[in-house]
């Protein structure tokens, strides 16, 4: 039997004396994908960082971490520098953070080649171009002198994969490599990783909270909770039988559908938000000192409405115009043509200094994808949650202001004393609750949600979706819910719109559109969306009983 690429035996890790990993065992074999699954804080990323020996100050690891014939825990830093990027590669979750914004993609892929092989610049760049072509970025369309900001999210992730795989490592660690990507790009990136594993015979550790992705990709699986292995084995067997209660809990959370009281209500005839024939053009690229190319149309003749108290989803691939449309709806950008009416106000024709604009912004709030990025890290929660209160018609006294903050925090399930702390002191799910508290503190009628759960693990995501449903029931909030996750769209929206190349190409009741898509764009999204039951069914060739979600139990109507 061939020796495994990586063998982890009774790995313990403490940071500042606090236990992080406790007796972790895991084996990664050549040419196979090993999934590492668990909630936030379970120790997935710390297991990966321990393997790379990229641990924070005060960390102490014990046990055995054998890479081939070497014990990585006993290796010197000089030896680890030789292994990182050469024999062990890593793909990080956020490509824009992992890439250097002031270096070209060619420089960044060639850097590791030059460092580890001593190749000269032309040879390293030639190998870099070959690697970029291999990951779907041919030199003819993506020259080496491009910068990261000139690429889409999926293209940047391909560059990160090219950097990690440039020297054909024996072990590749991919830490949530597709979290921020739409389902079509996600499928392309996962296919690319499978292809590299197959062609190069390397071992892949795939860290993911998406059980549908894991069921489709992984040969083996290790499920962690609080730094302890809960269940391990062949991925399909573990996810199919779900013998451990925690595995069952993760599977249920991944298909969680909130129980809405409002799901049985009929939509009102009036429209809270009414968008008519919206168009947004951006100037074309410069062809000379004064000349420009043809303008780019990001939003093309879009019309839709959102009734009071209803949740309308907006789905589509990256670059289809979803975020541009959201910015225009929020009056953060002016349309080129068309009109937007919100609660009887023509917001598309208002200026920032108009009194009606302050009223519109008070009643129309937003929850962003990354709450940490939307918060000022130097301000306390009290100041952050209270930010929209400046839109109120009259100034609030200190006591009334604090009372409003405490009430908003309690509504999202956060304690009142959270107001005295800073954003970095909270988990990802708690920060998203704080972001929702900030959005509802002015008692808005519409909340625009831009991928608000994409970076959360399945358990936290289920809690946040329950919170959105609760606020819809109790406050009558309407949502424009932008998401690339069709499971989320199915769980939290009454209707869904499919956007493609700036146009709304399909719209209807969520179940109708996602169960029986009529347009090519919608069919492409549905086909690419990971699904736990379908993935297991494909791999075992048998019929797996449908989940409650797939039977339609609890889905909003």
Explain what the structure shows.
The protein is α/β, with parallel strands linked by helices. Among the domains are: 92-207, P-loop containing nucleotide triphosphate hydrolases (Rossmann fold, 3-Layer(aba) Sandwich), CATH 3.40.50.300; 272-283 and 293-515, Rossmann fold (3-Layer(aba) Sandwich). Helix content is 36%, strand content 23%. It has 21 helices and 20 strands. The strands form 4 sheets. Strands 6-7-8-3-9-10 form a 6-stranded mixed beta sheet, with helices on both faces. The chain has a 6-stranded mixed beta sheet with strand order 16-17-18-13-19-20, with helices on both faces. Strands 2-1-4-5 form a 4-stranded antiparallel beta sheet, covered by helices on one side. β7, α7 and β8 (203-207) form a beta-alpha-beta unit. α4 (105-117) packs across α5, α4 runs parallel beside α6 and α7 packs across α20 (520-528). The longest helix is centred in the middle third of the chain and has 18 residues, at 183-200. The protein is globular and about 70 Å long.
Question: What is the compact description of this entry?
Answer:
The chain has 557 residues and is α/β, with parallel strands linked by helices. Helix 4 packs across helix 5, helix 8 (211-217) packs parallel to helix 21 and helix 10 (245-254) crosses helix 17. The longest helix is centred in the middle third of the chain and has 18 residues, at 183-200.
């Amino acid at each position: 039997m061939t020796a495994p690429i990586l063998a982890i035996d009774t790995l313990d890790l403490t940071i500042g004396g606090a236990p992080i990993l406790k007796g972790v065992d895991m084996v990664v074999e050549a040419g196979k994908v090993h999934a590492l699954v668990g909630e936030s804080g379970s120790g997935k990323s710390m297991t990966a960082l321990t393997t790379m020996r990229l641990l924070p100050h005060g960390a102490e690891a014990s046990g055995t971490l054998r890479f081939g014939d070497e014990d990585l825990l006993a290796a010197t830093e000089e030896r680890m520098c030789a292994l990182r990027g050469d024999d062990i590669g890593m793909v990080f979750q956020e490509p824009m953070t992992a890439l250097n914004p002031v270096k070209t993609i060619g420089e960044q892929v060639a850097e590791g080649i030059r460092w580890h092989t001593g190749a000269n610049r032309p040879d390293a760049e030639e190998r870099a171009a070959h690697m970029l072509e291999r990951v779907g970025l041919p030199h003819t369309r993506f020259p080496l002198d491009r910068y990261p900001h000139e690429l889409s999210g999926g293209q940047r992730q391909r560059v990160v994969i090219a950097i990690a795989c440039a020297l054909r490592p024996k072990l590749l660690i991919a830490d949530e490599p597709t979290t921020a990507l739409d389902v079509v790009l996600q499928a392309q990136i996962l296919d690319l990783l499978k292809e590299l594993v197959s062609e190069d015979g390397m071992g892949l550790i795939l860290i993911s909270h998406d059980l549908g992705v894991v069921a489709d990709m992984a040969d083996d699986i290790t499920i962690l909770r609080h730094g302890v292995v809960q269940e391990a084995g062949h991925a399909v067997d573990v996810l199919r039988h779900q013998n451990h209660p925690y595995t069952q809990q993760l599977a249920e959370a991944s298909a969680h559908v909130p129980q809405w009281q409002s799901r049985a209500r009929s939509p009102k005839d009036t429209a809270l938000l009414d968008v008519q024939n919206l168009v947004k053009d951006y100037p074309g690229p410069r062809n000379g000192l004064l000349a420009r190319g043809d303008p780019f149309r990001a939003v093309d003749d879009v019309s839709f409405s959102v009734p009071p108290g209803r949740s309308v989803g907006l789905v589509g691939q990256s670059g289809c115009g979803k975020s541009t449309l959201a910015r225009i709806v929020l009056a953060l950008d002016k349309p080129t043509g068309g009109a937007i009416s919100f609660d009887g106000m023509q917001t598309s024709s208002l200026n920032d200094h108009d009194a009606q604009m302050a009223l519109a912004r008070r009643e129309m709030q937003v929850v962003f994808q990354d709450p940490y990025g939307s918060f000022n890290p130097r301000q306390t929660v009290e100041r952050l949650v209270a930010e929209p209160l400046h839109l109120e018609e009259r100034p609030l006294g200190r006591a009334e202001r604090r009372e409003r903050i405490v009430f908003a925090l309690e509504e999202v399930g956060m304690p009142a004393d959270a107001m005295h702390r800073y954003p970095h002191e909270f988990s990802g799910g708690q920060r998203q609750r704080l972001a929702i508290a900030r959005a509802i503190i002015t008692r808005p009628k519409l909340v625009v949600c831009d991928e608000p759960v994409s970076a959360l693990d399945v358990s936290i995501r289920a809690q946040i979706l329950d919170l959105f449903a609760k606020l819809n029931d109790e406050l009558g909030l309407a949502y424009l819910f932008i998401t690339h996750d069709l499971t989320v769209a199915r769980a939290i929206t009454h209707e869904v719109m499919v956007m493609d190349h700036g146009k709304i190409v399909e719209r209807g009741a969520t179940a109708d559109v996602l169960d029986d898509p009529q347009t090519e764009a919608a069919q492409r999204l549905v086909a690419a969306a990971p699904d736990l039951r379908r993935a297991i069914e494909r791999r075992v060739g048998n019929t797996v009983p449908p989940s409650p979600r797939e039977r339609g139990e609890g889905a909003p109507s």
